[in-house]
Design brief:
- β8 and β9 form a beta hairpin.
- With 241 residues, this protein is mostly beta strands.
- The protein has a single domain, classed as Porin.
- The protein contains no helices and 15 strands.
- The chain starts with a strand and ends with a strand.
């Protein structure tokens, strides 16, 4: 989905009689970006009270180093009903990607959530992230480090993903989301563990344009108060560069 822009490295090697250009060396640094639009932004399967009343615009910038270090930013428009709809979510993250063998990989990272123009700072905070991947399967575990307006310290979101390449540049994309809730914080929870959502969708890259179209069906689970979430279809377009 992302097209990586690599810095160009051009080396010249002098000899006793000629000036020779060496083969282009791979860069240790890579940069990529993306921008997209979704018919609805539903945070971690919450469909009864989506983050945006209508379509949302999102995008991000990423840096990665050959050592495995990465850092980036992702943001999305929000609309909680204000007069100007200027609310905006910012996710700043950094971490390390590594591999155990050619099929098995891992990641460790930290995310800081910063919400612009929502009237308070109680939603801003840190979350850890641990992940494992095996071929087309992936599992991530994200845990809040402090009490926020939308969760307690210790709340943990577990997400499993599987993608399967289909003919004609289609991809089958699935995700299962579960939650472990810390009941000792200021926000109540009906139970300590619950099914949050299951997603199944199709995506397709459009020729060589860098644009990917997607449709995703969210099977709604339950929030921390055991309220059943609606099932929902979400359409999207994204452009990677």
């Amino acid at each position: 989905m992302k097209f990586t822009l690599k810095a160009l490295a051009l080396a010249a090697v002098a000899s006793t009689s000629t000036f020779t250009f060496a083969e282009e060396a791979p860069s240790e640094h890579s940069f990529s970006g993306n921008i997209g639009i979704l018919s609805s932004y539903n945070l971690r399967g919450i469909t009864n009270g989506p983050e945006n009343k209508g379509a949302t615009i999102n995008g991000g910038l990423d840096y990665s180093h050959a050592s495995g270090f990465y850092a980036g930013w992702w943001g999305s428009t929000l609309d909680y009903g204000s007069d100007n709809g200027s609310e905006f979510e910012n996710d700043f993250y950094a971490g390390y990607n590594g591999s155990i063998n050619e099929d098995l990989g891992y990641t460790v990272g930290l995310t800081y959530y910063y919400y612009y123009d929502i009237g308070n700072t109680g939603s801003n905070g840190f979350e850890t992230m641990l992940g494992l991947s095996y071929k087309d399967f992936g599992v991530t575990v994200q845990t809040l480090l402090e009490d926020l307006d939308w969760g307690n310290a210790g709340d943990t979101y577990i997400k499993g993903t599987y993608s399967y390449a289909l003919p004609h540049d289609f991809s089958l994309d699935t995700a299962l989301g579960l939650y472990i809730y810390d009941k000792n914080g200021p926000i109540e929870a009906t139970d300590t563990f619950g099914f949050r959502h299951f997603d199944i969708g199709l995506s397709k890259s459009i020729a060589d344009t860098g644009v990917t179209a997607s449709v995703n069906y969210i099977l709604g689970g339950y929030d921390r108060m055991d309220i059943k979430q609606n099932n929902k279809v979400v359409f999207g377009l994204s452009y990677g560069f």
